[in-house]
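FAQ: What does the model actually see?

It sees only this:
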Amino acid sequence: MLKELKFNIDPDYTNINIHELNKHFDPVILLDSNSEFNNKTQTRYSKLIALGTYQEFRMTKTLNIFSELQKFYDNRNGWLFGYFTYDLKNRIENLNSNNLNLINFPELKLFSPEIVIQINEMDLIVSFDEEITSQSIAIQAYNMLFAAPEKDIILSSTNFELQKKITREQYLNSVTQLKNHIQNGDIYEINFCHEFFAKNAEIDTVDTFTRLNEISHAPFSAYCKFSNHYLLCASPERFIQRVGNRIVSQPIKGTIKRSQNQIEDLQLKEKLRKDEKEKIENIMIVDLVRNDLSKIAKRETVKVDELCEIYSYKQVHQMVSTISCEIEDKCNFVDIIRSMFPMGSMTGAPKVSAMKLIENYESSLRGLYSGTIGYVNPEGDFDFNVIIRSILYNQENKNLSFMVGSAITEKSDPEREYEECLLKAKAMLEVLSY
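And it is asked to produce this:
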């Protein structure tokens, strides 16, 4: 039986003390919508925190992984949190992944947390199951949130060398070859990514996330600790949201830098709005998402709510489209995930053909990058992001990684695509002092 404790909080409260939470709980998840975006993205919570676990879905080698996942979902008691890595695609389609991954997040994780904390402006709710967690522990977790940080809490970081998995010349050559595939009719569009990585890296994950979040201030940010695996995410993109029987997806395709000069910034925004190449990229993915939604939608309910709208974030302007539908009553959680995953914005069109070429041309296993993390609430509504603009860190082997990419179409200029990747890498490079 879920119990809720409600508190009033100071609207001027400072950052959550994640260091303190990390000492006492595992996993720790903080989903931060940076609430000024809430009206635009229709995000339900300013911050949502999951602490500890008492029940989790465990991966097996069985061929019936999705039926087992649905059973776990159906037997949930309240909230679920978790992630799907990009490589779950191999369980959905006849695909494989053989590239090297330095971080090694497990393929899928979905769990019931011991404690969930919802924060909205001046209200805070602590939820817990009295049969699993005592009220005193729930109150202790609340007190940890705003505990004064210890002096010199920031851990020392090593000086590590950040490397590119492929050179600029290799990237340009790959884009040229992918354009040949497009001209031959193999695909229409593909999302091509490459990796920055470091070995023997030691970072304070909390400090790194705090600075990344301050720089990016994105609506689908996340700090996640799973034992020795960390996700430090500043994503601007929603993968999929469910509210009642309505499903919404908001793919991003189209990026341009921002300027501190207000007039120039407006000019850049208008330049993106009128960019035919970016529009074509975006519309191709809108068609893909419409097709994915049609597999689970009630007849004639798939619609494009926004087409190629410009959303402005702290570092970049982005072209965003919103596609929605009403789902069939018989559709379950797994039906929805299998129909939509992986997200079209991170694959291409046609989706399966693009994913095969991604495996051939990319040099790194994506893992959690371009996967998704999010929550399911007790009513069955859920919200999952697209894991981009994110640093992945394995504290045990001290490997650090982040990836960036862009959409390749027939009109792509390889040099311009490379510059777009560097623009997307800017925040991660800055917080890692490069």
